[in-house]
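Risk register update: the risk of archive-format incompatibility is retired. Evidence:
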Amino acid sequence: MLKSLGQRLTVSSWENKQTFFLWKQQLTKGGTMLTFRSITEVDQAHLTPKHRRAVIRALRNLLDAYGDDYDPDDCGFVVLLNEQTTDADALELMGRPWAEARLEGVMFDTETGCYLTCWLANNQYGLTFIVPDEEWLDPTFRALLLDELGGGNVR
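Archived output:
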């Protein structure tokens, strides 16, 4: 009934909306990466204050850039990686593992301790990734982020 992350999801009936809400609750409680398509979804998630700040900033940037035309299914959305995020998630979203991602620039937010980067599928659709700089972050992926950042070590 519900399609996997990275695919178009249309929730039309009340029953499907309830199922979707329960699915989002499960996703927010653990499992893999977290995806955010609206401020409401951020408000419903139980994020740490620093991760909430990072996600809100990224979403506001999308909303400011696209304005009323913002449609996350057509334009992209925000993805917060966590300790349970795997290469299977990256393959589902981008068709390649995290360490081989073709990123469009990286910045490091010292206030939130997160890398912020994006992956562009085409001229219209892209994903904004928020990657906490934590011990669990794969060293190869961290090296890719640092290389894209300009080689500066933030640790």
